[in-house]
Amino acid sequence: MPSQPLHPPVPSTSAPDSAPAVPAPAILVPASGRPAVPGYRALLRNGEFAGLYAGFALSVVASTLSGFALGTLVDDRTGSAFLTAVSMYGGSFAMVLGALTVMSVADGRRPRRTLVALQCLAFAGAAVQAVPGLPLAARFALLLVPGFFQSLATGTRMGLLAEVVPDATHAVARSLLNITAGGTAVLGYAVGAVLLHRLGPHGVFLVAAAAAGLGSAVVAATVREHSIRLTRRPGLRQTWTVNRTLLADPGRRALLLNLWVPNGLVVGCEALFVPYAPDRAGVLLAASAAGMLLGDLAVGRLLTAERRRRSAFALRLLLAGPFLLFVLRPPLPVAVAAVFLAGAGFAATLPLQERLLALTPAPVRGQVQGVESAGRLTWQGIGAAAAGGLAQCLTPGTAMTLAAAASVAVTVASRRAVLRAGADADANADAGDTGTEGARAARP
Predict the structure, then answer these.
(1) Which helix (H) or strand (E) holds 424?
(2) Of 407, 428, 96, 422, which is closest to residue 257 (Cα–Cα)?
(3) What residues form DSSP beta bridges with 36?
(4) 288 Cβ partners below 8 Å, 6+ apart?
(5) Cα–Cα distance between 355 and 306 in angstroms, integer?
(6) What is the mean pLDDT of residues 88-98?
(7) Which candidate, 209, 220, 225, places its Cα nearest to that of 121?
(8) How many CB atoms lie within 10 A of CB 177?
């Protein structure tokens, strides 16, 4: 039985100032009869996707540089490792509050305007952080405000993405965004270190503000308004209504559980690299990042949708399984290989996100994807805290192994529910219940 809709069918109404949608890239059908999914270059020839992609990359640059500069300032002033870590990553905990309160705005009638406004807010936050002599309390407050709205920005961007590209290319598009996020973050830290030496923290904040402002301008210039949106007024009540329905459905709940918990527990393993091997933590982190990039590239670009579905369970086991070796304190080459393989397992998010999208009606896709992203980042923080607590009582290697074992247990215990959710997604796709995207994908 297909999952019940998150929201009753609502007639779509175009915003008064909306422009005709730009057609999505055509899906060619070769002689074999199997649709050929466009690659990265074909996606980037779609002007709207290219604009969303460039705006996203610039947002990652701004966030990375701001976090790096703020962490440096806090460390210089306080010498506290805890406050420094909170300054760099604490904003992610505010995301869950945004997901619980304002997320329905992601599916408002003018998502382009919402995304531009949120990127302007990020610009303003980075610009104010550049003011010399600002008290630390004010800096932490400025950290939480963008964090609160970050989940809304993610939901709005992902809702637009689902309308700009057809369903058949959604996994390829998410793969490109994931690869870009990882590569841009690494490059951002490297460039940030050079800029910090030359400009100081306040100068780095100004560069971050410029990147955020440029991202706003790019989105405003390239992305159009779309009309597959709710006619109900967004707000707290609408957010709670959709979230309750989302979590009440067993199929969607199982998908969210597998997108959040196994991933978060493995991030907890990675959070222990420094206490596990202080002199080799950088090598392990680099191996994990390389595995993530390769996994997203292979799963998103080289596998068909059917093969992605079939590989989802194995990828979730690959995500945690290699960390079971760390209780034995393997030699560095073995540890690096294990971490690399585990990093490739993060690509399991792609087929799970595809299934969740297929079970989500078009009018609430932005909110649902924003909740998924906020929950995933929140669980990464929870996983890091839980693994760190275990490491206080046990050895880091033992704590990593226990966290990995818990990740495997969640994956195995929920496999049947995830398979049922996949069957529901296939049934919805066959029945055309996922809204106008199915029709758009089939259009020549």
Answers:
(1) helix 415-431
(2) 407
(3) 28
(4) 270, 339, 340, 342, 343
(5) 11
(6) 69
(7) 209
(8) 21
Q: How far apart are CA 132 and CA 209, in angstroms?
A: 15
What was the pLDDT predicted at 21?
42
**199-203, 363-367, 384-388, 390-394: least confident range:** 363-367
Q: Do the beta carbons of residue 355 and residue 363 sit within 8 Å?
A: no
pTM (2 d.p.): 0.65
Contact status, residue 308 vs residue 171, Cβ threshold 8 Å: yes
Q: Which helix (H) or strand (E) holds 438?
A: helix 436-442
Report the residue count for the chain.
444
Cα–Cα distance for residue pair 79/58, rounded to 1 Å = 30
Residue 421 sits at the vertex; the CA angle it makes with 418 and 427, to the nearest 5 degrees, is 150
Half-sphere exposure of 76 (CA within 13 A, CB side): 10
The separation between the first and the last C-alpha atoms of the chain, rounded to the nearest angstrom, is: 31
Dihedrals φ, ψ of 55, to 5°?
Answer: -65, -40
Buried b / exposed e across 10-24, counting CB within 10 Å, b at 16+? eebeebeebeebbeb
**Whether 151 contacts 103, CB under 8 Å:** yes
Residue 260's CB: how many other CB atoms inside 10 A? 21
Strand-pairing partners, residue 283, are none
DSSP, residue by residue, 267-284: HHHHTTHHHH-TTTHHHH
Angle at 186 between CA 411 and CA 256, to 5 degrees: 25
Reported as a single tens digit per residue, the pLDDT across 300-321 is 778 887 888 888 899 999 999 9
pLDDT value at residue 81: 52
The closest alpha carbon to 209, from 104, 65, 98, belongs to: 65
- Residue 83 confidence (pLDDT): 67
Give the pLDDT confidence of 239-287 residue by residue, as tens digits: 777 777 777 778 888 888 898 899 889 988 887 887 788 777 767 877 8
Task: Count the Cβ atoms, other than its own, within 10 Å of residue 433.
Answer: 18
Does residue 36 sit in helix, strand or coil?
Answer: strand
Cβ neighbours of residue 345 under 8 Å, at least 6 residues apart?
A: 266, 291, 295, 315, 316, 317, 318, 319, 320, 321
Q: Tell me the two tokens of residue 6.
A: 């998150």
Phi and psi at residue 28, in whole multiples of 5°? -75, 150
Q: Report residue 45 as tokens.
A: 């020839």
Residues 6+ apart with CB under 8 A from 83: 74
48: its two tokens: 């709207």
